[in-house]
Amino acid sequence: MATIDYQLPQVVIVGAGFGGLRAAKALAKAPVNVTLVDRNNYHLFQPLLYQVATAGLSPDEIAHPIRGILRTQKNLTFIMSEVTSLDLKERKIITQQTSLSYDYLILAVGSETNFFNQQSLEEHSFGLKDLQEAQAIRNHILNRFERAMLEDDAIVRRAMLTFVIAGGGPTGVEMAGAIAELVRVLQKDYPDLDHDLVQVVLLEAADRLLAHLAPESSSAALEALTHKGVQVRLHTLVASYDGKLIQLGENEQLPTQTLIWAAGVQAASLVRELAQEKWPQKRIKVLPTLQLPQDEKVFLIGDAAYLQDASGQPLPMVAPVAMQQADLAVKNLLHMIKSEPLQPFHYKDLGSMATIGRNQAVAELFGARLHGWLAWVVWLFVHLMQLVGFRNRLLVLINWAWQYLFYDRAVRLIETGDCDCSDG
Ligand SMILES: Cc1cc2nc3c(=O)[nH]c(=O)nc-3n(C[C@H](O)[C@H](O)[C@H](O)COP(=O)(O)OP(=O)(O)OC[C@H]3O[C@@H](n4cnc5c(N)ncnc54)[C@H](O)[C@@H]3O)c2cc1C
What we know:
Layout: E1 10-14, H1 18-26, E2 33-38, E3 42-44, H2 49-53, H3 59-62, E4 63-65, H4 66-69, E5 76-80, E6 83-87, E7 92-95, E8 99-101, E9 104-107, E10 111-113, H5 119-124, H6 131-150, H7 154-160, E11 162-166, H8 170-189, E12 199-203, H9 215-227, E13 230-233, E14 238-241, E15 245-248, E16 252-255, E17 258-261, E18 265-267, H10 269-272, E19 284-285, E20 291-292, E21 295-300, E22 305-306, H11 319-337, E23 351-355, E24 361-365, E25 368-371, H12 372-386, H13 390-406
Parallel strand pairs: 1-2, 1-9, 2-5, 9-21, 11-12, 11-17, 12-13, 19-22
Antiparallel strand pairs: 3-4, 6-7, 7-8, 10-18, 14-15, 15-16, 20-21, 23-24, 24-25
Helix pairs in contact: 1-11, 6-7
The chain binds flavin-adenine dinucleotide (FAD).
């Protein structure tokens, strides 16, 4: 990491997720000074968060220290701090500890859970966007089993052992499959518990799961989840949740002590004030060159950026979009420095996939549709290769092999700091 040369253009990048980290690396040899800012000191591989939440992986296996990743980059300084506001007029970002001036700014702040202004959901359900939330879910699920062992009332016990996930997109589907498998592993730990009381329920408002994939893939996901014991309820809308009962529509209530909210995300709060018009998920519309319409020296990439593809569809909030946009934002920034014309963004869609626990996945890649075991192997390979750091890849591979061979979930720990032991 660097000593700052103030003669060179100062580039500040906010966010060291998929987009920000990629942009920082792409600027390694450029004649600029880079300051990368993130509230965390690690880069998080969000696609495997659900495995931390279901005791399959530990947090350090899917997170990597940013200073370690960028240690050899001479033109880069890393600052761990929460950015609290942006001053585009003065070309400054303000963090909790300091303020930083820039010549060029790349905003790669991602997204956060969207509870659609439903206070009850925000208070009582779990989001799944960061490590703390994933660990809180793991602690809570394991804790429900401990509490159920001490509960005499069968109705309360059933609510304790009912795990509900709202949202039938990739996160909800993966989470439901993984909880169903965790529950099976826990049968061995709690032989005295009546496991007929355990339910895993996936709620989806639309008429099918994984609506971004072809109907055949949705049906395959539904079949695989049902086979694993998940109760999938389509056309089902969550109205509210008070920590004990989910109100479904007007007339139905579902007793549960666990609701995991995977039904929506929105652009990160830091950038929302930059919106000049309202776009879905409160994303901010950028120019095809990825600049902000109101300030050409600010690039906005990844989940928080709203841009449509050639057919008029919004680009999906996925890692490949963020990374490809990082590459173009860096190219365009360097073009600007040299007063060269900028290029528009074109997304190369390599496909998408979702895993459904052990052995099962659906994948649509390069125009081909895969289901079942083969899709699962492809999913494993793709995710393993994308993890940052050899250590993390090796540990995750060992963990997956262990889980596969022994039907085990190694990280079945309740951390006392997060233990919600008093509420059940
Ligand atoms: C559970 C889950 C599963 C997913 N599965 C997949 C998948 O299988 N495949 C796929 O392609 N995509 C998946 N995604 C989506 C993918 O993770 C995102 O599309 C991607 O992370 C977006 O990259 P980004 O750079 O825009 O933001 P992020 O990677 O989210 O990075 C944003 C960074 O900005 C930092 N930040 C935000 N606000 C501030 C602030 N005010 N101050 C300082 N730092 C800040 C954050 O700490 C974070 O490090 C998944 C997401 C989740 C949550």
